[in-house]
Amino acid sequence: MVRQEKAPYPIEAYDHWSLRPLNKPDTPELDKVGQLWTRNPIDSFTFLTLQEQGLSPSREADRATLIRRVYYDLIGLPPSPEEVQVFVNTSDPDAYELLVDRLLASEAYGERWARHWLDVVHYADTHGYDKDKPRPNAWPYRDYVIRSFNEDKPYFRFVEEQIAGDVIYPDTMDGVTGTGFIATGPWDFIGHAEVSEDKLDGKVARHLDRDDMVTVTMNTFTSTTVQCARCHHHKFDPVRMEDYYRMQSVFAALDRADRDFDANPEIARQRKEWTLSNTNTENELNEITSRIRATAGPALGVLETSIKKLEESEKSKPDAYGYHSAISQKPDDVKWCKLILVILLPFTK
Predict the structure, then answer these.
(1) 54 within some domain
(2) 3, 50, 107, 113: which has the highest count of C-beta atoms within 10 A?
(3) What is the pLDDT of residue 320?
(4) pLDDT digits (tens, 9 = 90+) for 74-85
């Protein structure tokens, strides 16, 4: 890295509140009214701000209102009348805490809050653009986000899986499906699949696709509009064009494609070993086939030509070289079968 003697932006640009290190402020001291109103340290900051604005706290919600607020907030659905009555009439001092724990443990919690994350990352079940083709295999990422919320997954792990899960956590279901984050945005089917990339329109489509990857990644995880630096140095944040294209180079070699994954890491490990073994076997088979052809000589070519002619002449007979003829609905149709015996000449390595 080349050391810069002079910062590309005024030093004030780097002193923006969003770029400063996090620190834990002291809890403000309140008067007796504030002390009676607050239940936790966060309430202290809220009460102090209300006082500074000349406002008073709202009155405490009744239990029927409280349960509705909690339901809508955590799962996005209202409680049933029976649930409201049980909560209103209970004498359990921990009823509210138990209610919150129950809703957090429900699958509906992940479904409710994953929706907000999916909106942020531009998730869709179709490509967008003019053809808007469906994405039949987009749903594993959606389910991954829901599952992560319901499992209370640590945020750092959640971020790593989406940016580079296939590298950091290979052979794991979440490590593979989490990287669907990178490909959730709109995709120009015409610009990528129907226009050659060596043409200008194809290059533009690919560039816009990589721009979307950079944009979604930085907007989501740093709340910084780095995409402004695609055409010029950022006018507000300390991001230069060089910075933007360095970030875009991270995604330069990526392409959208379907990928197999296994829910069990042990199965994933076995599949990898089997795939490698199968590849080695196919290579050995190709080598043996080459030796057979070399040993058989021109006679094998003549035989293959003869077989090809027979296949072309009997196209009207399905399964010409199968063990039986085509299935028929009539029991009195004439059936047929054909056996071809191929004698391979012995060969030496």
Answers:
(1) no
(2) 113
(3) 46
(4) 999 999 999 999
